[in-house]
Amino acid sequence: MLAQNVTHEALGAKRDKKRNADNDLVVNGIEISNMKIDSKITSRFAHNVITSQAVNRGNVHKEVIFDVELPKTAFITNFSMTIDGVTYPGIIKEKEVAKKQYEKAVSKGQTAGLVKASGRKTEKFTVSVNIEAASKVTFELTYEELLKRQFGKYEMFIKVKPKQLVKDFEIEVNIFEPQGITELEAEGTFITNDLQNIIKKTFTEKKGLISFKPTLDQQRTCATCSQSVLDGDFTVRYDVKRTTPDNLQIVNGYFVHFFAPTNLPKLPKNVIFVIDISGSMSGREIEQTRQALLKILDDIKDDDFFNFILFGSEVHTWKEALIKATPENLDEARKFVRSIDTAGMTNLHGGIMRGIDMLNAAHEGNLVLKRSASIIIMLTDGQPNVGISNTQDIQEHVKKAIEGKYPLYNLGFGYGVDYSFLEKMALENKGLARRIYPDSDAALQLQGFYDEVSNPMLTDVELNYPENEISDLTKNSFKHFYDGSEIVVAGRFIDSNQNSLTVDVRGEGAKDALSYTTQQDAEQTAEALKEQEYIFGDYIERLWAYLTIEQLLEKRIAATGEEKENLTAEALDLSLKYKFVTPLTSMVVTKPESYDNQDGIADKPIEVDGDPHFIISVPQKDDAICFNINENPGAVLNLVNDPVTGITVNGELIGDKRANSDAKIQNTYFGKLGIANKHLDLKLTVTPERITLQNGNEKTGQFFHTIDFTILEIHPGSDPKKPDATMIVKNNELRVTRGWQKDYRRDPKHGIDIPCWFVHNNGAGLIDGVHTDYIVSSLF
To answer: Where does the VWFA domain start and stop, copy by copy (predicted)?
Structure first.
């Protein structure tokens, strides 16, 4: 009997444990029964499928949320929901067409954008759907990207955040590289010692496999916890075998050429650091800049030449010309960097032009080695406001002065920069722009960027292909090739049956010119097609399309007029043909017509957020303040009331057609302005593009007089891209958030990014009185 009781107790304990485990799986009535991240990487091109199945364990209908973060460099290619056997697909269309369909579909309700920027490297894709009790929904999201090589390795980044325990969770990454795999590693920011052994890693000559499949108990933050430890980044890195600098692959009328020579002597470099020291850089920003520059000085090679140029209101140079990185000069440079302090405003034009003139003079006077690589790295946290401040004029002057001789790299520190201006100027001059996030690791971000460009191996690299054989070639000339990176060129054969290719490779190295011809046929690539489990469609054709779209969109940033229209049309055609969600396309997601489900639209996010109702320019601070008035559509606000001139301006709010279903109040904008002059008995109704309150010569009521404010205690906010701070203004202490908004005065169609401090709660503490004091009954 005792034995029988023990057996019954043991069985009861097992049942209790299972019951508790089952209860832990259900959060707000929803159980995620399985989630799998399945990645196939073939020749650097990654095809990722995220599948998640959820069950409504409640006895009433429930909302199920599918929430995924994916790399910003990726393009979504497919999404579907399957509810009780019925599939609801996402359809990719031209953005304007999708928007019209979307607005028609949701005219009776509100709806949510599906993709939003999230963090430094990711975008968030979110879909929610209401399902009946006991119903199941399966979400499937597919995205693709070309993996870039940096510091000698390819890296694939997966964000892992199921937010609850998952009965069956798995990550599987299959890699196939025809060249062969030399190393393979995987790590996770959430991986504890207990989880380390769960990561399974194997690779043979050409194939690699990473598997991570934790049990339910292994997912727990502790033995009795119902929270999941799976919250962070999972990263896979690998490299391939290189017996020659080139690898060409030919499949079905398309080719890809990977170029990454090894064991070349490093080129000496000539680098000028152009540093913003305006007042807004004071405090942590200038200290982190000093830290980064000191570390960079430790890495500068003895055959390099360098100099520092500082710009505030005035422009200062450390030395009158580039100097060699001798131990003595480096010691003197360290003393100079430690003494850098902030002062004045932002003479960006003066600083960058001084750097260009200095580098040009060094080349013209043969002060630097003929076989060397020259670069300019500019760091700024604001916008030009001294000297030439028109950004278009600055771009023109810089492009004319550089004349394509060397790349310009622009680093935008924080959120006060006009990032689109920095990006255009860098791309026009064979460089790139990078945002430096104002976090505790900003010095490491600065140093990390320098590391990427600190070891040039070749200059003026050209990969030339027979013009009579190839059409639709991606970029094939490159100013610099850096150690640990890779150049990728893809193209389409005029004759789709062609199975061989000859390439002429040229470049300038540290000791002599690089010049050779290589040939490849399709036989070796044909071997890859036999590995069917690694093949996803015409992967080289899709790689070509991805790379072409990416480069067209990049060219489009700096283009204008007809050239921009042609680039847009070409990128749009390819985006639609290959079903990529890009900045030119959207994916409409249809949902079941029950329980207030609304259709959604997925757009590729860009750098700029939505606009506020008011932007108050504060020139003496080189800054701006912005705020919203959150009122319902139809409300009329008194904007200007000047008893001396008799002028009154009122604005009527209209609703945003792309309203957010999660918002408590519908987004609104000014749809009409009523302008009246009682002295002239004049009434005028206009439809504005945007309203900007300028703290200058324009008379705009309470903001006519100078606004003085102080910003204190800048710290991370709920959005990692938008820090919070304390603002002291009008003797009030307000919580404000840093962001950037659109000013449409100079560019009515696209707007110009304006950084500002956003005042919450309808401008409370900034405006006189409360916002309801400004509500009036009609436009006149």
So the answer is: 270-453
